Amino acid sequence: MSFVSLFQHRAGYIGGGVLNRILSDGKAADFQITVLIRDAAKARKLEPFGVKTVVGSLEDTDELTALAGEADLVFNCADADNIQPTKAILAGLRKRHQSTGRVPSLIHTGRSIGVLADDATGMYLTETVYSDDDVDPLYKLPITAPHQEVNKAILEADQEGYIRSYLVLPPAVWGLAQGPLVDAHIMNPQSQEIPALIIASIDRGRPGMVGEGKNVWSNVHIDDAVLLYELIWNAILGGEEIGHGSQGYYFPENGEHQLYDVSKAIGAGLKDLRLVEDPEPSSFTTEELDKYFDGVSILLSLGSNSRCRGQRARAIGWNPRKTTGDMLASIKPEIQYMLSRAS
């Protein structure tokens, strides 16, 4: 069996975590692992790990089709919103099915923060909570919802029968990643959301939030999220029947938090480190949203509610350990880590 892992080229946080786990689970030597990566220097660093690398990008659709056409299992940990690379991967997997008679598998990474997000702009808590074992509300989300066009294309391919698809939709992923790929400076060790809030808070001299920070996100530690990927790929390799296609949504979540609580923990950490005088969060202005983030789009992200429950994930044996309390306690050490890297 051949793996083709399509990692997020600029960051590599989730994709790097998945590759770290594949390389450490003792089975990697049995397979050919191919990684598409944008950075040629990182590609060279991967060679000692026994990984075949192809330097390229998601815009290289012919390359994507060719690589997927050689694979029995594809991890797509790259752009969850770009339909053209997805179509290229599916075209390659269709060719794989036609040439071998086997049904290849696609483990695709989306983001529940995007696809489940509302327009709360930090002003209220929603009572809407999605579950990965209640698929009708998920499938009926509008095609205009973030990631939904990509997700539906994958589900249709599964329905046609030439792939088995597994949609892993992490919420807010947190925690400093560790492992050999981090040590080799191949994998980004940090998530996106909390570090972005830390940077903005230091610059403005006070922790910030969208609106009143009343919106709620589900969350998961990076190591716990990767364990769900491992359960899924082990089930595939072992011939175990687990849900795929429309029955193959998986939410790795183990708690939830209000944005206000995250910003308050950032403020406490910055106050302890004498980086701010006032640790109480205040609302980002429109100008600050444009400066630190991406203006309107951040209102639909950091200001949104995105609540989910991983019932199907737990039903296949996923047992996460890290909690929301652990996440809040990790914020000051993450600030210290960021300061050490900047010095």
Give an overview in words.
α1 packs across α10 (222-237), α4 (83-100) packs parallel to α7 (148-160) and α11 crosses α16 (331-342). α1 (13-24) links the parallel β1 and β2 (32-37). Strands 3-2-1-4-5-7-11 form a seven-stranded parallel β-sheet, with helices on both faces. The protein is globular, with a radius of gyration of 20 Å. The termini are far apart. Helices cover 43% and strands 15% of the residues. With 343 residues, the protein is of the alpha/beta class. The model has no long low-confidence stretch (mean pLDDT 90). It has two domains: 2-117 and 128-177 and 220-250, NAD(P)-binding Rossmann-like Domain (Rossmann fold), CATH 3.40.50; 193-218 and 255-308 and 319-342, Alpha-Beta Complex (UDP-galactose 4-epimerase, domain 1), CATH 3.90.25.
Determine and state the CATH class of the largest domain: Alpha Beta
In total, how many domains does the architecture comprise?
Answer: 2
What strand order characterises the main sheet? 3-2-1-4-5-7-11
Question: Which stretches are low in confidence, meaning pLDDT under 50 for 5 or more residues running?
Answer: none
SS elements, strand count:
14
The CATH fourth-level homologous superfamily of the largest domain: NAD(P)-binding Rossmann-like Domain
What level of helicity do the residues show? 40-55%
The amount of beta strand, in percent, is 15-25%
pLDDT averaged over residues: 90
Helix-strand sequence: EHEHEHEHEHEHHEEHHEEHEEHEHHEHHH
Shape: globular
Distance between the termini: 45 Å
Question: Architecture of the largest domain, according to CATH?
Answer: 3-Layer(aba) Sandwich
**Helical/strand content category:** alpha/beta
Q: What summary fits the major beta sheet?
A: 7 strands, parallel
Number of helices: 16
GO molecular function, one term: aldehyde dehydrogenase (NAD+) activity
InterPro entries: NAD(P)-bd_dom (IPR016040), NAD(P)-bd_dom_sf (IPR036291), NAD(P)-dependent_oxidoreduct (IPR051783)
Domain NAD(P)-binding: 12-97
Protein name: NAD(P)-binding domain-containing protein
